[in-house]
Design a protein that fits this description.
heterodimer; A: mainly alpha; 2 domains; globular; B: alpha/beta; Glutathione S-transferase Yfyf (Class Pi), Chain A, domain 2; Rossmann fold; four-stranded parallel sheet; about 10% strand
Chain lengths: ~150, ~325
């Protein structure tokens, strides 16, 4: 399952390198956060246990690891792959689910604050593309159902 | 200069309309050809949407870029996340014609087409590269000379560099150059390039988000920074709002957090109230007070001039 998301050859190199460890803000600041262990487990086929871990959501997607990586790959790909599988199984933080629900329902993560806008003398906000977005999302789901793809 | 649509994004319009206010004032004052276009949705937010459905992430961003393509205009955004997400997808589709065809076959159903002609810029590199430091200097009525400013770039202003291509992704310079052009000192400090950590708040790990905010704010307090300046609503939320929450719990760090457009607005002569800065959760007053005191002091040139023209020690 992870094969679809990750390049194991590059990860093999990652497991021997770790150049990004000292630049990663989560590695430096959050005790116990160490993607090097996660990558070793992925290569050993023992990654299921990480799906329920808080660690995989502690990657801040700041792309520091990507930029310093000699392969332009980085930790973040491993973390994103695990998060995607976890989310598919419904194991994700409540706020991620709440954000997702609001997005697919309204096409946004919140509506413009109208009274505050008026007070500040701001113009009417531009129209949102919610209706068209919903149509597109329905088309995408239909297409996926036809092709049997799940992501 | 080509016309550009401002991509406000969800966070600014939902939570921080005063950032839209200062941005509009600044864009008007610089007479930049900006406009609003109908039909934008969420960019969409990467950590929430991409983790669950990559194809919807790509399709939504491609549709937003397609709207600007149709209007034959570029996109400029005061939000780092929006620019980074849109640019990431634009880059992905540029190098993946199969995926681009798939996206366009869906967009065709609603009468749109992703071409990817619209240039996508974040406001800060846009001001540096397109408006230019000279023009910025000319517009400023008041200098920030004597103030120590701690810049927080915001990860997604400059990364991923393969999509944004606007500055050195590990050692950026453009924001610093603008701050120096405004007369202030842009501080160097160990955690300068450290991510704000707001992402942790979005995954139910609020305590760790506070922990990350504290690391940088404590350092700035010990170094005597007069303000933190940034241009990302997510980082703003982290340092302004979360700093306020810490203060409520009895931990006062006292670092005013100022948006890039507010700083420009102040320099152009707008008051903090006109810019809506009184709506920040963490108090900006100490910064304004110190700045106003510095403005009242005669500058070095005037002191020398005065000494030369009046009776000095040599009679």
């Amino acid at each position: 399952m992870l094969n679809a998301h990750l390049n194991f050859k590059l990860l093999e190199m990652c497991s021997k390198c770790g150049a990004c460890f000292s630049i990663c803000p989560s590695c430096v600041n959050l005790p116990g956060y160490d993607p090097r262990i996660v990558i070793k487990d992925i290569l050993a086929g023992d990654w299921e246990k990480w799906l329920t871990s808080k660690s995989i959501w502690q990657c801040l997607e700041c792309h520091h690891c990507l930029e310093i990586c000699f392969q332009h790959y980085g930790f973040e790909n491993a973390m994103t792959a695990l998060r995607t599988i976890a989310a598919k199984r419904g194991i994700h933080p409540t706020q991620v689910k709440r954000g997702w629900d609001m997005f697919v329902k309204t096409s946004k993560l919140g509506d413009p604050a109208l009274p505050a806008r008026k007070k500040l003398g701001l113009p009417e906000p531009a129209k949102s593309g919610a209706e068209e977005f919903k149509k597109l999302y329905a088309l995408l789901k239909e297409k996926k159902a036809k092709s049997g793809k799940t992501h | 200069m080509k016309d550009f649509a401002v991509f406000w994004g969800c966070t600014i319009q939902t939570r921080f309309p005063f950032i839209e206010k200062s941005t509009r004032l600044v864009l008007d004052e610089f007479k930049l050809p900006h406009r609003d276009i109908d039909g934008f949705t969420c960019c969409p937010e990467k950590s929430l949407i991409n983790n669950i459905d990559h194809s919807l992430f790509v399709l939504t961003a491609a549709r937003n870029v397609a709207l600007a393509d149709e209007h034959d205009c570029d996109i400029v955004s005061p939000c780092t996340g929006c620019v980074s997400n849109l640019a990431t997808v634009k880059g992905e589709l540029k190098y993946n014609p199969v995926e681009k065809n798939e996206v366009n076959s869906l967009l065709k159903e609603v009468g749109r087409e992703f071409k990817g002609t619209a240039k996508l810029s974040h406001l800060v590199p846009f001001f540096h590269d397109v408006v230019g430091l000279q023009t910025i200097k000319q517009k400023m009525k008041k200098s920030f000379s004597g103030l120590k400013i701690a810049l927080h770039y915001g990860c997604h202003m400059i990364r991923p560099s393969h999509a944004l291509k606007n500055d050195d992704p590990l050692n950026p310079k453009k924001f610093d150059n603008i701050i120096r052009a405004l007369g202030a000192e842009s501080m160097n400090f160990p955690t300068k390039m450290m991510c704000c950590g707001q992402g942790l708040d979005r995954v139910d790990q609020h305590d760790l988000a506070l922990f990350m905010a504290r690391v940088k704010l404590k350092e700035l307090k010990s170094l005597g920074a007069d303000a933190m300046v940034l241009c990302c609503p997510s980082c703003f939320l982290q340092f302004d709002n979360n700093q306020y929450l810490m203060e409520k719990e009895g931990e006062k760090l006292g670092i005013p957090v100022i948006y890039f457009t507010e700083l420009l607005g102040l320099g152009m002569g707008y008051s903090a109230e006109e810019l809506g800065m009184n709506q920040h959760r963490s108090d900006c007053a100490p910064f304004i007070k110190k700045w106003e005191a510095l403005l009242k002091k005669p500058d070095d040139e005037a002191i020398i001039e005065n000494d030369l023209n009046t009776a000095g020690a040599l009679g």
